[in-house]
Design a protein that fits this description.
The complex is a heterodimer of chains A (107) and B (422). With 107 residues, chain A is mostly helical. Chain A has 3 helices and 1 strand, in the order H-H-H-E. In chain A, helix 1 packs across helix 3. Chain B is an alpha+beta fold. A 7-stranded antiparallel sheet of chain B has the order 2-11-10-5-4-3-6. Chain B has a 7-stranded antiparallel sheet with strand order 12-18-17-16-15-14-13, with helices on both faces. Chain B has a 3-stranded antiparallel sheet with strand order 7-8-9, with no helix packed on it. In chain B, helix 1 packs across helix 8 and helix 3 packs across helix 7. Chain B is globular, with a radius of gyration of 23 Å. The chains are: A mainly alpha (107), B alpha+beta (422).
Protein backbone atom coordinates (compact mmCIF):
# COMPACT_ATOMS: atom_id res chain seq x y z
CA UNK A 1 0.00 0.00 0.00
CA UNK A 2 1.72 3.18 -1.19
CA UNK A 3 2.45 6.17 1.03
CA UNK A 4 3.43 9.67 -0.14
CA UNK A 5 7.17 9.69 -0.95
CA UNK A 6 8.02 11.97 2.00
CA UNK A 7 6.62 9.33 4.36
CA UNK A 8 8.15 6.24 2.73
CA UNK A 9 10.00 5.47 5.96
CA UNK A 10 6.63 4.30 7.39
CA UNK A 11 6.14 1.61 4.74
CA UNK A 12 7.37 -1.18 7.08
CA UNK A 13 4.26 -0.34 9.18
CA UNK A 14 1.76 -0.46 6.31
CA UNK A 15 -0.12 -3.29 8.05
CA UNK A 16 -1.44 -0.52 10.32
CA UNK A 17 -3.25 1.06 7.33
CA UNK A 18 -6.75 -0.05 8.35
CA UNK A 19 -10.06 1.43 7.32
CA UNK A 20 -12.22 0.91 10.41
CA UNK A 21 -11.77 1.56 14.11
CA UNK A 22 -12.82 -2.04 14.72
CA UNK A 23 -9.82 -3.28 12.70
CA UNK A 24 -7.45 -0.79 14.32
CA UNK A 25 -8.61 -1.71 17.82
CA UNK A 26 -8.41 -5.45 17.08
CA UNK A 27 -4.82 -5.02 15.84
CA UNK A 28 -3.96 -3.07 18.99
CA UNK A 29 -5.28 -5.91 21.18
CA UNK A 30 -3.41 -8.49 19.08
CA UNK A 31 -0.08 -6.62 19.18
CA UNK A 32 2.76 -6.78 21.70
CA UNK A 33 3.96 -3.62 23.43
CA UNK A 34 7.25 -3.94 21.53
CA UNK A 35 5.41 -3.92 18.20
CA UNK A 36 3.28 -0.91 19.16
CA UNK A 37 6.29 0.93 20.58
CA UNK A 38 8.23 0.42 17.33
CA UNK A 39 5.30 1.75 15.28
CA UNK A 40 4.80 4.69 17.65
CA UNK A 41 8.53 5.57 17.65
CA UNK A 42 8.58 5.64 13.85
CA UNK A 43 5.24 7.39 13.31
CA UNK A 44 4.91 9.88 16.16
CA UNK A 45 7.73 12.20 14.98
CA UNK A 46 6.00 12.30 11.58
CA UNK A 47 2.52 13.09 12.93
CA UNK A 48 2.89 16.85 12.80
CA UNK A 49 4.64 16.81 9.37
CA UNK A 50 1.85 14.51 8.12
CA UNK A 51 -0.97 16.81 9.25
CA UNK A 52 0.84 19.77 7.68
CA UNK A 53 1.44 17.83 4.45
CA UNK A 54 -2.20 16.70 4.26
CA UNK A 55 -3.49 20.29 4.64
CA UNK A 56 -3.19 20.71 0.86
CA UNK A 57 -5.87 18.03 0.19
CA UNK A 58 -9.57 18.17 1.06
CA UNK A 59 -10.03 15.43 3.64
CA UNK A 60 -13.08 13.97 1.90
CA UNK A 61 -11.27 13.27 -1.40
CA UNK A 62 -7.74 12.19 -0.56
CA UNK A 63 -5.67 10.43 -3.25
CA UNK A 64 -4.79 6.83 -2.31
CA UNK A 65 -1.29 7.41 -0.83
CA UNK A 66 -2.54 10.38 1.23
CA UNK A 67 -5.56 8.41 2.41
CA UNK A 68 -3.20 5.62 3.51
CA UNK A 69 -1.14 8.14 5.45
CA UNK A 70 -4.23 9.44 7.27
CA UNK A 71 -5.38 5.90 8.09
CA UNK A 72 -1.90 5.08 9.39
CA UNK A 73 -2.00 8.15 11.65
CA UNK A 74 -5.42 7.06 12.90
CA UNK A 75 -3.78 3.81 13.98
CA UNK A 76 -1.14 5.90 15.75
CA UNK A 77 -3.99 7.48 17.73
CA UNK A 78 -5.24 3.97 18.57
CA UNK A 79 -1.86 2.84 19.95
CA UNK A 80 -1.11 6.13 21.72
CA UNK A 81 -2.96 5.08 24.88
CA UNK A 82 -1.09 1.76 25.30
CA UNK A 83 2.27 3.41 24.56
CA UNK A 84 1.89 6.75 26.36
CA UNK A 85 -0.21 5.68 29.34
CA UNK A 86 -1.19 2.07 29.92
CA UNK A 87 1.99 0.11 29.07
CA UNK A 88 -0.41 -2.62 27.97
CA UNK A 89 -2.77 -3.10 25.03
CA UNK A 90 -5.99 -3.31 27.04
CA UNK A 91 -7.56 -0.49 29.01
CA UNK A 92 -6.85 -1.28 32.69
CA UNK A 93 -9.91 -2.02 34.83
CA UNK A 94 -12.03 -2.66 31.75
CA UNK A 95 -12.41 -6.45 32.23
CA UNK A 96 -14.94 -7.94 29.84
CA UNK A 97 -16.52 -4.58 28.95
CA UNK A 98 -16.60 -3.74 25.27
CA UNK A 99 -17.78 -0.82 23.17
CA UNK A 100 -18.19 -1.28 19.42
CA UNK A 101 -17.84 1.66 17.09
CA UNK A 102 -20.70 0.72 14.78
CA UNK A 103 -20.53 3.76 12.55
CA UNK A 104 -17.77 6.30 11.98
CA UNK A 105 -17.04 9.11 9.52
CA UNK A 106 -15.70 7.61 6.30
CA UNK A 107 -12.14 8.35 5.24
CA UNK B 1 -14.59 24.66 52.02
CA UNK B 2 -16.15 24.24 48.58
CA UNK B 3 -14.16 25.52 45.59
CA UNK B 4 -17.35 26.60 43.85
CA UNK B 5 -20.30 28.34 45.49
CA UNK B 6 -23.23 26.21 46.65
CA UNK B 7 -26.84 27.34 47.21
CA UNK B 8 -27.79 29.21 50.38
CA UNK B 9 -29.16 26.01 51.95
CA UNK B 10 -25.55 24.83 52.22
CA UNK B 11 -25.76 22.06 49.63
CA UNK B 12 -27.20 21.35 46.20
CA UNK B 13 -29.22 18.48 47.61
CA UNK B 14 -30.88 20.53 50.35
CA UNK B 15 -31.77 23.12 47.71
CA UNK B 16 -34.27 20.46 46.55
CA UNK B 17 -35.83 19.45 49.89
CA UNK B 18 -38.21 16.91 48.32
CA UNK B 19 -35.18 14.71 47.69
CA UNK B 20 -34.11 14.47 51.33
CA UNK B 21 -30.59 13.48 52.28
CA UNK B 22 -31.25 9.93 53.50
CA UNK B 23 -29.55 6.87 51.98
CA UNK B 24 -31.15 5.70 48.72
CA UNK B 25 -32.74 2.28 48.28
CA UNK B 26 -31.32 0.49 45.23
CA UNK B 27 -33.84 -2.34 45.26
CA UNK B 28 -35.27 -0.44 42.29
CA UNK B 29 -32.36 -1.73 40.21
CA UNK B 30 -32.72 -5.46 40.98
CA UNK B 31 -36.43 -6.10 41.55
CA UNK B 32 -38.05 -7.73 38.46
CA UNK B 33 -41.54 -6.56 39.51
CA UNK B 34 -40.31 -2.97 39.78
CA UNK B 35 -38.75 -3.25 36.33
CA UNK B 36 -42.06 -4.46 34.90
CA UNK B 37 -43.75 -1.46 36.51
CA UNK B 38 -41.11 0.91 35.05
CA UNK B 39 -41.78 -0.42 31.56
CA UNK B 40 -45.41 0.66 31.80
CA UNK B 41 -45.15 3.64 34.14
CA UNK B 42 -42.09 5.25 32.57
CA UNK B 43 -41.23 3.96 29.11
CA UNK B 44 -44.81 3.75 27.83
CA UNK B 45 -45.66 7.23 29.06
CA UNK B 46 -42.66 9.50 28.51
CA UNK B 47 -41.05 10.98 25.39
CA UNK B 48 -38.18 8.78 24.17
CA UNK B 49 -35.48 10.09 21.88
CA UNK B 50 -35.00 7.67 18.99
CA UNK B 51 -32.61 9.59 16.75
CA UNK B 52 -31.84 12.71 14.75
CA UNK B 53 -33.37 14.22 11.63
CA UNK B 54 -30.07 13.67 9.76
CA UNK B 55 -30.91 9.94 9.82
CA UNK B 56 -33.90 10.60 7.54
CA UNK B 57 -32.49 13.25 5.19
CA UNK B 58 -34.99 12.97 2.31
CA UNK B 59 -38.43 11.70 1.28
CA UNK B 60 -38.56 7.94 1.82
CA UNK B 61 -35.56 7.81 4.19
CA UNK B 62 -36.37 5.46 7.05
CA UNK B 63 -34.84 3.46 9.87
CA UNK B 64 -36.19 0.96 12.36
CA UNK B 65 -35.79 1.17 16.11
CA UNK B 66 -36.07 -1.93 18.29
CA UNK B 67 -37.62 -1.05 21.66
CA UNK B 68 -37.59 -4.21 23.75
CA UNK B 69 -38.53 -2.21 26.84
CA UNK B 70 -41.98 -1.56 25.36
CA UNK B 71 -42.14 -4.77 23.32
CA UNK B 72 -42.19 -3.14 19.93
CA UNK B 73 -40.23 -2.14 16.86
CA UNK B 74 -40.82 1.21 15.21
CA UNK B 75 -40.36 2.56 11.69
CA UNK B 76 -39.26 6.20 11.59
CA UNK B 77 -39.79 7.64 8.10
CA UNK B 78 -39.83 10.96 6.27
CA UNK B 79 -42.94 11.33 4.09
CA UNK B 80 -43.52 13.14 0.80
CA UNK B 81 -44.67 16.19 2.75
CA UNK B 82 -41.33 16.28 4.60
CA UNK B 83 -42.94 15.25 7.90
CA UNK B 84 -41.21 12.63 10.04
CA UNK B 85 -43.60 9.93 11.30
CA UNK B 86 -43.33 6.85 13.48
CA UNK B 87 -45.27 3.61 13.02
CA UNK B 88 -45.30 0.26 14.72
CA UNK B 89 -43.27 -1.98 12.42
CA UNK B 90 -46.14 -4.41 11.90
CA UNK B 91 -48.16 -5.49 8.87
CA UNK B 92 -51.91 -5.17 9.32
CA UNK B 93 -52.58 -8.47 7.55
CA UNK B 94 -51.27 -11.04 10.02
CA UNK B 95 -48.79 -9.14 12.13
CA UNK B 96 -45.55 -9.89 10.35
CA UNK B 97 -42.75 -7.47 11.04
CA UNK B 98 -42.91 -5.13 8.06
CA UNK B 99 -39.37 -3.78 7.61
CA UNK B 100 -36.38 -6.02 8.33
CA UNK B 101 -33.63 -7.85 6.50
CA UNK B 102 -32.32 -11.30 7.33
CA UNK B 103 -32.65 -11.08 11.11
CA UNK B 104 -35.89 -9.73 12.57
CA UNK B 105 -34.16 -8.36 15.71
CA UNK B 106 -31.64 -6.22 13.80
CA UNK B 107 -32.30 -2.56 13.11
CA UNK B 108 -32.24 -1.54 9.44
CA UNK B 109 -32.22 1.72 7.49
CA UNK B 110 -32.64 2.79 3.90
CA UNK B 111 -34.72 4.73 1.40
CA UNK B 112 -37.90 3.53 -0.31
CA UNK B 113 -41.02 4.73 -2.14
CA UNK B 114 -43.32 2.52 -0.10
CA UNK B 115 -43.17 -0.36 2.38
CA UNK B 116 -43.94 -3.85 1.09
CA UNK B 117 -44.46 -6.76 3.47
CA UNK B 118 -42.23 -9.66 2.48
CA UNK B 119 -44.88 -12.18 3.57
CA UNK B 120 -47.89 -11.43 1.31
CA UNK B 121 -46.81 -8.21 -0.43
CA UNK B 122 -49.25 -5.84 1.28
CA UNK B 123 -48.04 -2.32 0.56
CA UNK B 124 -48.11 0.88 2.62
CA UNK B 125 -47.35 4.45 1.63
CA UNK B 126 -44.73 6.53 3.45
CA UNK B 127 -47.66 8.08 5.35
CA UNK B 128 -48.69 4.65 6.60
CA UNK B 129 -51.79 4.17 4.40
CA UNK B 130 -52.51 0.66 3.14
CA UNK B 131 -52.32 1.00 -0.66
CA UNK B 132 -52.32 -2.56 -1.99
CA UNK B 133 -53.69 -5.94 -0.95
CA UNK B 134 -52.42 -8.96 -2.87
CA UNK B 135 -55.43 -10.85 -4.33
CA UNK B 136 -57.74 -8.31 -2.76
CA UNK B 137 -60.80 -10.08 -4.23
CA UNK B 138 -60.16 -13.08 -1.91
CA UNK B 139 -60.84 -10.93 1.17
CA UNK B 140 -64.16 -10.13 2.74
CA UNK B 141 -64.67 -6.43 2.31
CA UNK B 142 -61.47 -5.15 3.86
CA UNK B 143 -61.65 -1.35 3.79
CA UNK B 144 -58.06 -0.31 3.06
CA UNK B 145 -58.60 3.13 4.62
CA UNK B 146 -59.03 1.55 8.06
CA UNK B 147 -56.02 -0.77 7.82
CA UNK B 148 -53.14 1.69 7.75
CA UNK B 149 -50.00 1.21 9.84
CA UNK B 150 -50.51 1.86 13.54
CA UNK B 151 -48.94 5.22 14.21
CA UNK B 152 -47.04 6.42 17.27
CA UNK B 153 -46.79 10.00 18.55
CA UNK B 154 -43.66 11.49 16.98
CA UNK B 155 -42.37 15.03 17.50
CA UNK B 156 -39.08 16.77 16.80
CA UNK B 157 -37.13 19.16 19.03
CA UNK B 158 -34.03 20.87 17.58
CA UNK B 159 -33.57 17.97 15.17
CA UNK B 160 -33.95 15.27 17.85
CA UNK B 161 -36.76 12.81 17.00
CA UNK B 162 -38.88 11.67 19.94
CA UNK B 163 -41.70 9.15 20.19
CA UNK B 164 -44.31 8.57 22.88
CA UNK B 165 -46.47 5.45 23.15
CA UNK B 166 -49.05 7.32 25.17
CA UNK B 167 -51.58 8.94 22.80
CA UNK B 168 -52.62 11.29 25.61
CA UNK B 169 -49.10 12.51 26.39
CA UNK B 170 -48.44 16.24 26.69
CA UNK B 171 -46.65 17.86 23.70
CA UNK B 172 -42.91 17.18 23.49
CA UNK B 173 -41.85 20.79 24.04
CA UNK B 174 -43.91 20.95 27.26
CA UNK B 175 -42.44 17.67 28.47
CA UNK B 176 -38.82 18.71 27.79
CA UNK B 177 -39.46 21.99 29.56
CA UNK B 178 -37.03 24.72 30.52
CA UNK B 179 -33.75 23.01 29.68
CA UNK B 180 -34.87 22.34 26.12
CA UNK B 181 -36.23 25.86 25.73
CA UNK B 182 -32.93 27.27 26.98
CA UNK B 183 -30.93 25.13 24.52
CA UNK B 184 -32.84 26.20 21.43
CA UNK B 185 -30.63 27.70 18.76
CA UNK B 186 -27.58 25.61 19.60
CA UNK B 187 -26.10 24.61 16.20
CA UNK B 188 -26.81 20.88 16.49
CA UNK B 189 -27.60 20.84 12.74
CA UNK B 190 -24.00 21.83 11.91
CA UNK B 191 -22.56 18.89 13.86
CA UNK B 192 -23.23 16.02 11.51
CA UNK B 193 -19.99 14.00 11.67
CA UNK B 194 -20.99 11.12 13.93
CA UNK B 195 -19.20 8.36 15.82
CA UNK B 196 -21.69 5.76 17.14
CA UNK B 197 -20.68 3.34 19.90
CA UNK B 198 -22.87 0.49 21.14
CA UNK B 199 -22.54 -2.12 23.87
CA UNK B 200 -24.76 -4.51 25.77
CA UNK B 201 -24.22 -3.92 29.47
CA UNK B 202 -25.05 -6.33 32.29
CA UNK B 203 -26.69 -3.83 34.59
CA UNK B 204 -29.96 -2.09 35.23
CA UNK B 205 -30.35 0.95 32.96
CA UNK B 206 -30.34 3.37 35.91
CA UNK B 207 -26.90 2.25 37.07
CA UNK B 208 -25.19 3.46 33.89
CA UNK B 209 -27.06 6.76 34.08
CA UNK B 210 -25.78 6.97 37.66
CA UNK B 211 -22.23 6.45 36.37
CA UNK B 212 -22.45 9.29 33.86
CA UNK B 213 -24.54 11.60 36.06
CA UNK B 214 -21.73 12.23 38.55
CA UNK B 215 -18.05 13.05 38.12
CA UNK B 216 -17.20 12.32 41.78
CA UNK B 217 -15.73 9.04 40.45
CA UNK B 218 -13.57 10.62 37.77
CA UNK B 219 -10.37 11.45 39.69
CA UNK B 220 -10.42 7.93 41.20
CA UNK B 221 -11.63 5.44 38.57
CA UNK B 222 -9.87 7.26 35.73
CA UNK B 223 -6.79 8.20 37.74
CA UNK B 224 -4.40 6.37 35.43
CA UNK B 225 -5.68 8.22 32.34
CA UNK B 226 -4.00 11.53 33.17
CA UNK B 227 -0.25 12.05 33.43
CA UNK B 228 0.97 11.41 36.98
CA UNK B 229 1.30 14.91 38.50
CA UNK B 230 -2.08 15.93 37.14
CA UNK B 231 -3.71 12.68 38.32
CA UNK B 232 -2.30 13.15 41.84
CA UNK B 233 -3.65 16.69 41.96
CA UNK B 234 -7.09 15.67 40.72
CA UNK B 235 -7.25 12.85 43.28
CA UNK B 236 -6.24 15.16 46.12
CA UNK B 237 -8.71 17.89 45.20
CA UNK B 238 -11.60 15.59 44.27
CA UNK B 239 -14.50 16.73 42.13
CA UNK B 240 -16.99 19.53 42.55
CA UNK B 241 -19.43 20.62 39.88
CA UNK B 242 -19.89 24.27 38.96
CA UNK B 243 -23.67 24.04 39.11
CA UNK B 244 -26.61 21.64 39.37
CA UNK B 245 -30.21 22.19 38.38
CA UNK B 246 -33.36 20.08 38.44
CA UNK B 247 -36.57 20.66 36.49
CA UNK B 248 -38.60 17.59 37.34
CA UNK B 249 -38.23 15.04 35.75
CA UNK B 250 -35.08 16.34 34.03
CA UNK B 251 -31.75 17.38 35.50
CA UNK B 252 -28.39 18.90 34.63
CA UNK B 253 -24.83 19.11 35.94
CA UNK B 254 -22.38 21.76 34.82
CA UNK B 255 -18.69 20.95 35.06
CA UNK B 256 -15.36 22.67 34.63
CA UNK B 257 -13.04 21.41 31.92
CA UNK B 258 -9.65 23.04 31.96
CA UNK B 259 -8.12 20.54 29.53
CA UNK B 260 -9.38 22.04 26.30
CA UNK B 261 -6.91 23.59 25.83
CA UNK B 262 -4.97 22.85 29.02
CA UNK B 263 -3.43 25.68 31.06
CA UNK B 264 -0.07 23.96 30.70
CA UNK B 265 0.58 21.58 27.79
CA UNK B 266 2.77 19.44 30.04
CA UNK B 267 -0.45 18.37 31.79
CA UNK B 268 -1.48 16.31 28.77
CA UNK B 269 -0.13 13.41 26.74
CA UNK B 270 2.23 13.92 23.76
CA UNK B 271 -0.40 12.95 21.18
CA UNK B 272 -2.83 15.48 22.65
CA UNK B 273 -0.21 18.23 22.31
CA UNK B 274 0.30 17.46 18.60
CA UNK B 275 -3.36 16.91 17.67
CA UNK B 276 -4.73 19.59 20.04
CA UNK B 277 -7.52 17.34 21.26
CA UNK B 278 -8.42 14.95 24.07
CA UNK B 279 -11.23 13.86 26.36
CA UNK B 280 -12.83 17.30 26.32
CA UNK B 281 -12.66 17.40 22.54
CA UNK B 282 -10.66 19.40 20.00
CA UNK B 283 -9.05 22.50 21.54
CA UNK B 284 -9.95 24.71 18.59
CA UNK B 285 -13.58 25.70 18.12
CA UNK B 286 -15.11 25.06 14.71
CA UNK B 287 -15.80 28.15 12.63
CA UNK B 288 -19.61 28.15 12.71
CA UNK B 289 -22.38 30.45 13.86
CA UNK B 290 -24.17 29.84 17.14
CA UNK B 291 -21.32 29.12 19.55
CA UNK B 292 -20.81 32.69 20.74
CA UNK B 293 -22.83 33.67 22.59
CA UNK B 294 -24.06 30.27 23.73
CA UNK B 295 -27.73 29.64 24.53
CA UNK B 296 -28.50 30.94 28.03
CA UNK B 297 -29.01 27.56 29.71
CA UNK B 298 -25.37 26.60 29.09
CA UNK B 299 -22.68 27.33 31.67
CA UNK B 300 -25.29 28.60 34.18
CA UNK B 301 -22.57 29.54 36.69
CA UNK B 302 -20.99 31.72 33.95
CA UNK B 303 -17.62 30.31 35.02
CA UNK B 304 -14.56 30.90 32.87
CA UNK B 305 -13.33 27.32 33.45
CA UNK B 306 -16.61 25.83 32.15
CA UNK B 307 -16.05 22.61 30.20
CA UNK B 308 -19.27 20.67 29.69
CA UNK B 309 -22.94 20.56 30.64
CA UNK B 310 -24.73 17.21 30.93
CA UNK B 311 -28.50 17.28 30.54
CA UNK B 312 -30.43 14.22 31.60
CA UNK B 313 -33.73 14.23 29.73
CA UNK B 314 -35.78 11.66 31.58
CA UNK B 315 -35.92 8.75 31.27
CA UNK B 316 -32.95 7.54 29.22
CA UNK B 317 -31.43 10.32 27.11
CA UNK B 318 -28.39 12.35 28.09
CA UNK B 319 -27.08 15.28 26.08
CA UNK B 320 -23.59 16.62 26.81
CA UNK B 321 -22.52 19.92 25.30
CA UNK B 322 -18.81 20.66 25.39
CA UNK B 323 -17.20 24.09 25.50
CA UNK B 324 -15.08 23.58 22.35
CA UNK B 325 -18.18 23.17 20.16
CA UNK B 326 -19.28 19.55 19.88
CA UNK B 327 -21.84 17.33 21.58
CA UNK B 328 -22.34 13.82 22.83
CA UNK B 329 -25.48 11.78 23.50
CA UNK B 330 -26.07 8.70 25.64
CA UNK B 331 -29.04 6.35 25.43
CA UNK B 332 -29.78 3.50 27.82
CA UNK B 333 -32.35 1.01 26.43
CA UNK B 334 -33.42 -1.57 29.01
CA UNK B 335 -33.75 -5.17 27.84
CA UNK B 336 -34.20 -6.76 31.30
CA UNK B 337 -34.00 -5.71 34.94
CA UNK B 338 -30.25 -6.41 34.84
CA UNK B 339 -29.40 -5.67 31.17
CA UNK B 340 -29.51 -2.77 28.79
CA UNK B 341 -28.19 -1.61 25.45
CA UNK B 342 -25.95 1.41 25.75
CA UNK B 343 -25.43 3.78 22.85
CA UNK B 344 -23.16 6.80 22.67
CA UNK B 345 -22.93 9.23 19.75
CA UNK B 346 -20.24 11.89 19.34
CA UNK B 347 -21.19 14.74 16.98
CA UNK B 348 -18.67 17.13 15.40
CA UNK B 349 -18.74 19.78 12.72
CA UNK B 350 -17.49 17.78 9.69
CA UNK B 351 -13.70 17.84 9.40
CA UNK B 352 -12.32 19.81 6.47
CA UNK B 353 -8.70 18.84 7.02
CA UNK B 354 -6.82 15.71 8.09
CA UNK B 355 -5.75 17.54 11.25
CA UNK B 356 -9.39 18.11 12.21
CA UNK B 357 -10.31 14.51 11.39
CA UNK B 358 -7.44 13.26 13.59
CA UNK B 359 -8.49 15.60 16.41
CA UNK B 360 -11.99 14.05 16.24
CA UNK B 361 -10.49 10.56 16.15
CA UNK B 362 -8.47 11.26 19.29
CA UNK B 363 -11.56 12.57 21.10
CA UNK B 364 -13.55 9.46 20.06
CA UNK B 365 -10.77 7.03 20.99
CA UNK B 366 -10.29 8.77 24.35
CA UNK B 367 -14.01 8.58 25.02
CA UNK B 368 -13.88 4.81 24.50
CA UNK B 369 -10.94 4.39 26.89
CA UNK B 370 -12.91 6.11 29.65
CA UNK B 371 -16.26 4.49 28.89
CA UNK B 372 -14.78 0.99 29.04
CA UNK B 373 -13.69 1.67 32.62
CA UNK B 374 -17.11 3.11 33.44
CA UNK B 375 -18.97 0.15 31.90
CA UNK B 376 -16.88 -2.42 33.70
CA UNK B 377 -17.88 -1.21 37.16
CA UNK B 378 -21.56 -1.75 36.36
CA UNK B 379 -21.77 -5.52 36.24
CA UNK B 380 -19.80 -5.63 39.48
CA UNK B 381 -22.31 -3.27 41.10
CA UNK B 382 -25.31 -5.15 39.69
CA UNK B 383 -24.17 -8.54 41.02
CA UNK B 384 -23.51 -7.16 44.50
CA UNK B 385 -26.83 -5.29 44.63
CA UNK B 386 -28.52 -8.54 43.67
CA UNK B 387 -27.12 -10.19 46.80
CA UNK B 388 -29.43 -7.86 48.80
CA UNK B 389 -26.82 -7.86 51.58
CA UNK B 390 -27.17 -4.08 51.64
CA UNK B 391 -29.89 -2.15 49.88
CA UNK B 392 -29.51 1.44 51.09
CA UNK B 393 -26.60 3.62 50.08
CA UNK B 394 -25.50 7.11 51.15
CA UNK B 395 -25.24 9.52 48.21
CA UNK B 396 -23.17 12.70 48.49
CA UNK B 397 -23.98 16.20 47.30
CA UNK B 398 -22.09 15.58 44.01
CA UNK B 399 -24.48 12.66 43.36
CA UNK B 400 -27.59 14.86 43.28
CA UNK B 401 -28.64 13.67 39.82
CA UNK B 402 -28.62 10.04 40.98
CA UNK B 403 -30.85 10.87 43.91
CA UNK B 404 -33.19 12.69 41.53
CA UNK B 405 -33.25 9.83 38.98
CA UNK B 406 -34.25 7.21 41.55
CA UNK B 407 -36.80 9.54 43.18
CA UNK B 408 -38.41 10.58 39.88
CA UNK B 409 -38.64 6.95 38.79
CA UNK B 410 -40.22 6.01 42.13
CA UNK B 411 -42.74 8.83 41.66
CA UNK B 412 -43.71 7.55 38.18
CA UNK B 413 -44.02 3.97 39.43
CA UNK B 414 -46.06 5.01 42.47
CA UNK B 415 -48.44 7.08 40.37
CA UNK B 416 -48.91 4.17 38.00
CA UNK B 417 -49.44 1.64 40.79
CA UNK B 418 -51.86 3.94 42.66
CA UNK B 419 -53.88 4.46 39.48
CA UNK B 420 -53.94 0.71 38.81
CA UNK B 421 -55.17 0.05 42.37
CA UNK B 422 -58.07 2.51 42.09
Amino acid sequence: MPLPAEFASLEPFSDWILVTERERYAKRLASSMAEMQAFYDAAFPLLEPATTYLEQFPVDSLPEPERNLLLLMMSLVTVSFPVEVWKQARVPDSGAAYLDLVSEPAV
Amino acid sequence: MPHFAKPAEGSWTEHYPELGTAPVDYTDSIDPAYYEAERKAVFRRTWLNVGRVEQVPKTGSYYTKELAVVDTSLIIVRGKDGEIRAFHNMCRHRGNKLVWNDYPGEEVKGTCRQFTCKYHAWRYSLNGELTFIQQEEEFFGVDKSSFGLKSVRCEVWEGFIFVNLDPAAQPLADYLGEFAKGLEGYPFHEMTEVFTYKAEVGSNWKLFIDAFAEFYHAPVLHQKQAIKDEADKLFRVGFEALHYELHDPHAMISSWGGMSPPKDVNMVKPIERVLRSGLFGPWDRPDIEGLDPLPPVLNPARHKAWGTDSFHFYPNFMLLIWAPGWYLTYHYWPTAVDRHLFEANLYFVPAKTAAERLAHELAAVTFKEYALQDANTLEATQTMLKSRVISEFPLCDQELLLRALHKVTADYVKEYRDAAAR
